[in-house]
Design brief:
heterodimer; A: alpha+beta; OB fold (Dihydrolipoamide Acetyltransferase, E2P); 9-stranded mixed sheet; B: 9-stranded mixed sheet; globular
Chain lengths: ~475, ~400
């Protein structure tokens, strides 16, 4: 049996309230909220967050391939999956690939892994932009999803098996964007709708036939698409029970493009019971249908941080800050020199530290060194340390400050001295935090972020963020 | 293992110090020439009388040529030293040890820094990014972390502690206001300090030292030769350096309410000088008040107040110009200004004036004590170098 062994959906902390848009612009807006990646997040860091969540539940599983896909990559040419590979400390024999750039690429990568072999970690992420006041800005969303796909095995059972998948492909221009542009353009909405509805029905019929199922057998259905109107119309026209149609999360998070089918699928699996048939239909330049059935093993699968929990803790971001983070407003920067680009050889030498937050622990004294050190700060040990990864270890704030004059892509810098559970201290920048709500003793956890970019080189490293959920034992 | 020191083996026989401040019209060479000529005149010597030179500068020049060129020192050994904000004092330490060793008869230390050409407020020099994991926080932010830590440890609320820190700022501004060489020559009220916009944590602009250009210089001879140059030399009693490993930064035991490097340097200096009760033996102290919480913590690290009590002593006026132990009578880094490589020698310059009764009636300390302390620290809480020295106007 082949299928999904584990999944994780990542929703960034900040929300844009859609009604905040007309408050500033006088037009646009809508009901609900959309998810907003922080200024220090990109599709690579969000993808890693989802990947960490997907792997957290199955320590026995070891992916033998990492696939990353996004229409909004941090780098062209340079493989974005490699940063995720490094942050997960995957072995060098595990290949890391970027796949595709279209809005079909996320669900396509998942479909390919499900019909392939081996244990593949499929990661999809997207960050949807649009011009101020436009529908893409308001109804797009940011997020990521990751799936560990493989064969049923001890310690890593399949929680949702693939019943069937089907595609309907057609060449037509509904939505397009030239590489490097932030803004997508769309053809008249009605044209896309009249293409997507028959394509969706065609793929749906093929998938049901391949699975030997009737539409009434489907327990959970979601249709995702940047073409919201087509998705809505199709979800009511597929013959499933009305109550099978689940919330597509676009009201609270927006449509996170290529990542959205994964994000909603993960949220469905996180709440599913054994034996349920789950259908995901994604409309983008055609239609993709995935039909899955949850297994008995899903009862024993406890997701580290369900999508629903992340939706619950989100906090509003002022629209002005949103515009600044998206490069649509250029606020006065701090009058400090801008940082220079990260240097490749030192970054490579420090790969484990920089990408995976691995320090060293003195085998004799137990003293934890962050970054790793050859000579111990306690006793005289030299070159007698073991690596210690604190990326997943929560900590407590010993003292903190707010730096209003240092350079930051989004001042001020909130900074704290963090003591990690079980030993180790590191002074580190905080993120996803409201500075005035901070105090000594607050609990935090580490998160992988993009600190800044210079000369097109992104500086990835770790920050701490408030722990918004009790750690699982 | 021992730190023997060179108590009473060398003496300062002449000093010079430029005004500190925004010298838009002078480059570092001009400042070096000004301070050096003052020092030569003060000692009654010329550049050719000096056997060896040391220049302390953190960022304004490289190699001994940064001093040999502006002064046109011909055929003499000239070296440049650097040790963060202890740089100026390191130059004097090197010159003093060289004379004490017998290698030279007369040596000169010059400290100089040109910081105001950078185009940014504060000290901002872009460094190579390396692996991109180094923090980019300002010094103000690093030192601001003392505030919540100290308040919590000693049961003060933060507003109360900010009032104490404003008292320190107002004191140093009052001292600088009457010092003709100081960068800021205006008294600043506690209310003004407290109402300034916050830069980092709870610290406002008046909690931070002034960034300045400046230079200071000193000439050293063996103690027994001092009388040939002056009736009122200053004798070196102690030089102590403590260089941190940076490990406090990652040590969960470190609590941001003290600087172990400073305490270690002070203890070494007191042992070298035979000082057992600094609070009651020192005439004055010049300490590295880069930020107001730094001066607060130093009062405890240097043994001027018991742990957790410096804030009370500050409010009681113990460290005021007319207090029991005047601290930073020249205005300190706070209002005299902080040209990094010159600051250490500037502190000696104030000792030179005060212990010899030359500070002028308005700010002369009235005391029969004959010892003075200077203190530098460079770096940040958890990772710093510290240099403590003691000078005296009498032998023994």
């Amino acid at each position: 049996m082949r299928g999904i062994v584990s999944s994780g959906g990542y929703v960034p902390f900040r929300r844009l309230r859609r009604s905040a848009v007309p408050e500033l612009l006088g037009t646009g807006g809508g009901k609900g909220t959309r998810a907003v990646a922080s200024h220090d997040e990109d599709t690579t860091t969000m993808g890693l967050e989802a990947a960490r969540l997907a792997l957290a539940g199955v320590p026995a599983a070891a992916p033998d391939a990492l696939w990353f896909t996004t229409p909004t990559p941090a780098y062209a040419d340079k493989t974005n999956a490699n940063a995720i590979h490094a942050a997960l400390r995957l072995s060098s024999e595990v290949p890391a690939f970027d796949f595709g750039g279209g809005l079909r690429s996320g669900v396509g990568a998942l479909e390919t892994a499900l019909s392939g072999r081996g244990t593949t970690l499929v990661v999809m992420a997207d960050q949807r932009d649009g011009l101020p006041g436009g529908p893409d800005e308001t109804f797009g969303g940011d997020g990521a999803a990751a799936f560990l796909v493989g064969d049923d095995g001890p310690g890593a059972p399949v929680v949702a098996e693939l019943l069937a998948s089907a595609s309907a492909t057609d060449e037509f221009t509904d939505r397009w964007r030239t590489p490097g542009e932030r803004r997508s353009k769309v053809w008249e909405e009605r044209f896309g709708e009249t293409r997507y509805l028959p394509l969706g029905k065609e793929a749906w019929a093929r998938a049901l036939k391949a699975a030997g199922l009737e539409a009434e057998a489907v327990d959970r259905l979601v249709v995702t698409s940047m073409h919201g109107r087509a998705a809505k119309a199709l979800s009511g026209a597929l013959g499933t029970a009305k109550e099978a149609v689940v919330d597509d999360l676009s009201g609270s998070l927006g449509q996170a493009g290529a990542a959205h089918p994964g994000l909603v699928l993960s949220s469905i699996l996180e709440e599913a019971d054994p034996g349920q048939v789950v259908a995901v239909v994604h409309l983008a330049d055609g239609a993709e249908v995935l039909l899955l059935r949850t297994t008995d093993a899903i009862a024993g699968w406890s997701p580290e941080r369900p999508v629903a929990a992340q939706i619950a803790v989100g906090a509003e971001l002022p629209y002005g800050k949103f515009l600044a983070w998206r490069g649509m407003l250029s606020p006065e920067p701090p009058r400090r020199p801008e940082p220079l680009r990260v240097q490749s050889p030192p970054a490579w030498r420090a790969e484990e530290w920089k990408f995976a937050f691995v320090g060293s622990r003195d085998r004799t004294s137990g003293a934890v060194h962050l970054p790793p050190s050859r000579v111990s700060m306690q006793g005289g040990a030299v070159d007698d340390m073991e690596p210690v990864c604190l990326a997943g270890t929560p900590g407590t704030i010993a003292t903190f400050t707010i730096d209003r004059i240092a350079y930051s892509p989004s001042p001020p810098i909130v900074f704290a001295v963090v003591d990690f559970d079980g030993g180790g201290r590191y002074p580190v920048e905080l993120t996803d935090v409201d500075a005035d709500a901070l105090s000594i003793g607050d609990r935090v956890e580490m998160t992988f972020r993009r600190l800044y970019s210079a000369d097109g080189v992104h500086d990835y490293f770790w920050k701490a963020r408030p722990l918004r959920r009790a750690p699982t034992a | 293992m021992a730190s023997h020191g060179i108590k009473d083996r060398v003496a300062i026989i002449g000093m010079g110090c430029t005004p500190f401040g925004e010298h838009w019209d002078k480059d570092v060479d001009d400042l070096i020439v000004d301070a050096s000529m003052d020092a030569f005149a003060s000692a009654g010597v010329t550049k050719d009388d000096i056997d060896a030179y040391w220049l302390g500068t953190a960022t304004s020049g490289s190699s001994g040529m940064a001093l040999a060129r502006p002064l046109q020192i011909q055929g003499k050994p000239v070296s440049r030293v650097e040790n963060f904000c202890a740089t100026g004092s390191e130059a004097l330490r090197a010159a003093s040890y060289a004379v004490a060793s017998g290698a030279y008869d007369i040596a000169m230390a010059v400290g100089a820094e040109k910081l105001k050409d950078g185009g940014y407020q504060g000290i901002a020099s872009p460094k190579p990014a390396g692996d991109g994991t180094q923090r980019t926080l300002t010094a103000a932010a690093m030192y601001s972390m003392i505030v919540p830590a100290y308040a919590k440890k000693y049961g003060l609320d933060e507003d109360q502690l900010m009032d104490v820190l404003a008292t320190i700022a107002a004191k140093n501004h009052a001292n600088g206001a009457v010092n003709p060489r100081a960068q800021f020559r205006k008294a600043v009220s506690k209310e003004t300090v407290l109402s300034a916009p916050r830069l980092a944590g709870r610290l406002g602009v008046f909690d931070c030292a002034g960034v300045a250009d400046g230079s200071a210089a000193a000439i050293i001879v063996r103690a027994e030769d001092a009388a040939r140059y002056t009736d009122t030399p200053l004798y070196i009693k102690a030089f102590a350096v403590s260089t941190g490993t940076g490990s406090s930064l990652i040590d969960p035991e470190y609590d941001y309410t003290h600087f172990p490097e400073c305490e270690a340097a002070a203890n070494d200096a007191y042992a070298q000088a035979g000082v057992t009760d600094p609070r009651h033996q020192l005439a004055m102290a010049e300490v590295h008040d880069c930020f107001t919480p730094t001066e607060l913590v130093l009062m405890e690290d240097l043994g001027f107040a018991e742990r957790g009590t410096a804030w009370k002593e500050v409010l009681a006026g113990t460290f005021d110009l007319r207090g029991e132990l005047p601290v930073n009578p020249d205005g300190g880094l706070k209002s005299f200004g902080h040209p990094v490589g010159a600051s250490g020698l500037r502190m000696f310059f104030e000792c030179w004036l005060q212990l010899r009764g030359e500070a002028g009636a308005e700010r002369q300390i009235d005391t029969d004590r004959t010892l003075a302390l200077t203190h530098n620290l460079g770096g940040y809480p958890g990772e710093m170098v510290s240099l403590v020295s003691i000078v005296g106007s009498e032998l023994g």
